[in-house]
Design a protein that fits this description.
By secondary structure, the protein is an alpha/beta fold. It has one domain (11-253): 3-Layer(aba) Sandwich (Glutaconate Coenzyme A-transferase). Helices cover 26% and strands 22% of the residues. The chain has eight helices and 14 strands. The chain has helices at 11-21, 35-46, 74-78, 86-94, 137-143, 176-180, 217-222, 242-253, and strands at 28-31, 52-55, 59-60, 82-83, 101-104, 108-109, 115-116, 119-120, 129-130, 146-150, 187-191, 195-199, 206-212, 229-237. The strands form three sheets. It has a ten-stranded mixed beta sheet, sandwiched between helices. A two-stranded antiparallel sheet has the order 6-7. The protein has a two-stranded antiparallel sheet with strand order 8-9. Strand 13, helix 7 (217-222) and strand 14 form a beta-alpha-beta unit. The longest helix is centred in the N-terminal third of the chain and has 12 residues, at 35-46. It is globular.
């Protein structure tokens, strides 16, 4: 007899928990608003309270008690160890390589980890959708030691080739970052609501290395706009613990 266990969490919650687990104590993390901020603040509340969260507005070591609405949210400055100017964040922290992880979202992501947050459609002057744009993401993607991307997965967002490269990942394959003189390792981890991908060490193409509990490989492939390769040793993400879910829900409910 097979016993069915009711799942007590959503796919978005699994994604946020998986992304939070990727962060470890003491890392300096450049945090994007939205899903990356949720994951980073969850990590700080659970297993990595010494994470140093850095936001583009110039707040170093922010410890918000709720999710910030934007990089200009006052709670980031109120809870920061220091507040500096935006040029200082980029000139003295990001560009010299003092940031361990850049945590970004994406509107489109391709198989080499290139990110688009600029336009949907190949005609830049007359796109189907004009997106918020780059902000500091191009420099984050270029200069952080490594980049984690967290994004909901669908064929609309996971495309064979992005319509516009806002933030450079691995270009068209391994070696292009080095040719351009980019110091960071680029995207080393992509976390979605279906699973986890990492770049192949030989080609830099994203490979499915982990699926979340209850998700099938076919589901992930159907939500991907290219022929997604699967790791030989595919693993399953452990489900969220009660403590992780409680912390995440309290964070989202906080006002």
């Amino acid at each position: 007899m097979t016993t069915t266990v009711e799942r007590t969490y959503t796919s978005d919650e699994m994604m946020s928990v998986a992304a939070a687990r990727a962060l470890t104590g003491g890392q300096r993390v450049f945090v994007g608003i939205g899903l990356p901020s949720t994951a980073a603040n969850l990590a700080r509340r659970t297993h990595a309270d010494d994470l140093v969260l850095i936001y583009e507005s110039g707040t170093l070591g922010s410890k918000p008690t709720r999710l910030p609405a934007s990089i200009g949210d006052g709670i980031l400055a109120d809870t920061a160890d220091a507040v500096i100017s935006v040029p200082e964040v980029f000139n003295y922290w990001l560009q010299p390589g003092r940031i361990d992880v850049g945590f970004l979202g994406a509107a489109q992501l391709d198989k080499f980890g290139n990110i688009n947050t600029t336009v949907i459609g190949t005609d830049y002057a007359d796109p189907k959708v004009r997106l918020p744009g780059a902000g500091g993401a191009p420099e984050i993607a270029a200069n952080c030691h490594e980049v984690y991307v967290v994004v909901r997965q669908s064929k609309r967002s996971f495309v064979d080739q992005v319509d516009f490269i806002t933030s450079f990942g691995h270009g068209r394959g391994k070696g292009e970052r080095e040719e351009l003189g980019l110091p960071g390792a680029g995207p080393t981890l992509v976390i979605t609501d279906l699973g986890v991908m990492r770049p192949d060490p030989d080609t830099a193409e994203l490979v499915l290395t982990q699926i979340h509990e209850g998700v099938t490989v076919d589901q992930v492939k159907e939500a991907t706009g290219w022929d997604l390769k699967v790791a030989a040793e595919l693993t399953t993400t452990p489900p969220p613990t009660e403590a992780e879910l409680t912390a995440l829900r309290e964070l989202k409910a906080a006002k």
